[in-house]
Design goal:
Blueprint lengths: L20 H23 L10 H6 L8 H23 L8 H11 L2 H14 L4 E7 L5 E7 L10 E7 L6 H4 L3 H8 L7
Antiparallel strand pairs: 1-2, 1-3
Helix pairs in contact: 1-3, 4-5
The structure holds manganese (II) ion.
Length: 193
């Protein structure tokens, strides 16, 4: 089984004006596709692992029976595939709020607005490429973290709830170096809160 690029659940232009259609098209059809292709190239060597859903592959990254180089490749490209597949589903042209999640966030971070400030600050402060995450830990509490490159909370045993792509390819065409503006506008595309 080969890993495949998932279809976007909306048009490339659906997140305008917050995220422009050209960025979405390149991000999905070029960047994400490249992660899928490179992951597939690595996994050709490991037919016994090829049926693993990508999230399982990433969750068990540290114990996979693969070479060190390929473990790093799976971390990068498998992580890239898993992270982007999740990211697309978090956004959309219409809100579909998750009231239970909003309550849990409000309880833990004082308020939804305060959470958004904290999350935005973490995203803005992350140096270089990577992602900011809201995760649920094994004890059930929520946590805001930032991870470099295509590293996934799944590898750390944490459950992803929300994430923003901080690679320049996610925003540079429209926002150039203005990551803060990208983050502020990105909230408008988030469906669940
Ligand atoms: Mn990306």
């Amino acid at each position: 089984m080969k890993y495949e690029l998932p279809k976007l659940p909306y048009a490339y232009s659906a997140l305008e004006p917050h995220i422009d259609a050209k960025t979405m098209e390149i991000h999905h059809s070029k960047h994400h596709q490249a992660y899928v292709d490179k992951l597939n190239a690595i996994m050709e060597k490991y037919p016994d692992l090829q049926n693993m859903p990508v999230n399982e592959l990433i969750a068990s990254l540290n114990t996979l029976n693969v070479s060190d180089d390929d473990r790093q490749g799976i971390r990068n490209h498998g992580g890239g595939h898993a992270n982007h597949s999740f990211f697309w589903t978090l956004m959309g042209p219409e809100k579909e709020t998750d009231d239970a999640l909003i309550k849990k966030i409000s309880d833990q971070f004082t308020s939804l607005e305060r959470f958004k400030e904290d999350f935005s600050e973490k995203a803005l402060g992350h140096f270089g490429s990577g992602w900011a995450w809201l995760v649920e830990t094994s004890s059930g509490s929520l946590e805001i973290i930032a991870l470099p490159n295509q590293d996934s909370p799944l590898t750390l045993g944490k459950e992803p709830i929300l994430t923003i792509d901080l690679w320049e390819h996610a925003y540079y065409l429209k926002y150039q170096n203005r990551r803060k503006e990208y983050i502020a506008n990105w909230w408008n595309t988030v469906r669940c809160i």
